[in-house]
Amino acid sequence: MTNEELCTLAVKAMENAYVPYSGYKVGAALLTKSGKIYTGCNIENASYSPTVCAERTAIFKAVSEGEREFLKIAVAGGKNGVITGEFPPCGVCRQVMAEFCIPDFKILVVGGENSFNEYTLSDILPFSFNPEHVK
Ligand code: THU
Fold first, then answer.
1. Domain of 99: which CATH number?
2. Nearest-CA neighbor of 106 among 122, 92, 90, 91?
3. Ligand 1 center–CA 69 separation, angstroms
4. Structure confidence at residue 83 as a pLDDT band (50, 70, 90)
5. Is the CB of 122 under 6 A from ligand 1?
6. Rounded to whole angstroms, how far apart are CA atoms 58 and 72?
7. Whole-structure pTM value
8. Ligand 1 pocket test: which of 16, 18, 26, 94 has the largest number of ligand atoms within 8 Å of its C-beta?
9. Which domain holds residue 124?
10. Which end is more exposed in the chain, N or C (fewer Cβ atoms within 10 Å of the end residue's Cβ)?
11. Opening angle at CA 98, ends 24 and 75, nearest 5
């Protein structure tokens, strides 16, 4: 699975986004250490706060299937499904990544039709509060 292929799956996952309130369609594709892929989309709610992001959908799908070791995640998003720039993971999703992923976990953020930038979890969540702090 190349980075480009993972990004393509994230873009594809945008199609299932349930976004009647914001119109922002987001997709994610997560690669596990065991080589499996879990995709996710954002799912909004009339009560707003139950909304779940695409990244957490993908991570929770994987964890609920017994996977806890992850290599990388690709993320793509944009208003009405049109990617006009990078749509980076929100703070809550970064915190969920910190629960399961090492600091070198890779986040591929799609920026356009054929482009992405690569970040690490420690790039986007420095000085994290993580499981080490509650042992
Ligand atoms: N969203 C995600 O799916 N991932 C993020 O990391 C940022 C935000 C979604 C939530 C909401 O449905 C929409 O984007 C606008 O905030």
1. 3.40.140.10
2. 122
3. 23
4. very high
5. no
6. 12
7. 0.97
8. 26
9. 3-134
10. C
11. 30
**For residue range 53-78, what is the model confidence (pLDDT) as tens digits?**
999 999 999 999 999 999 999 999 99
- Catalytically active residues are 55
Ligand 1 centre to CA of 60 (Å) is 15
Is the pLDDT at 4 greater than 90? The verdict is yes
Structural domains counted in the chain: 1
The amino acid at 54: A
User: E strands within the chain?
Assistant: 24-32, 37-41, 70-79, 106-112, 115-120
Task: Please report the pLDDT score of residue 15 as a whole number.
Answer: 98
How far, in Å, is the centroid of ligand 1 from the Cα of 24? 7
**Closest C-alpha residue for ligand 1 atom 13:** 24
